[in-house]
Design brief:
The structure is a single chain. It contains four helices and four strands. With 101 residues, it is an alpha/beta fold.
Length: 101
Amino acid sequence: MSSGRILNGVLEVVTSAGPVYLCPTFFERLCLAWIFRHFRILPVAVLNPRAQRLVEGIVQNRRRADMHDDILGTVDCRPADTKKNSSNLAPKEITQELVEA
């Protein structure tokens, strides 16, 4: 992962309403770099509780960002029926906060 992504990267959260780009703090970007070190896209259901709390905190702060190339990772919060080959449901808190914003 390049230093540009750690310094300026955004988190992409995919909901049924479409993608949302959020700007995490520097510390949150470091944590996200570790979470997404092997995979670019992860369903929220496979994240451990600490990582889920991190994503929820970023969503609650609602620091929106414009789409750009420095995406740290993508959290997929879509319900299972809109995903291909998946059987897990995303926590409702994350999806509801993004749709209401």
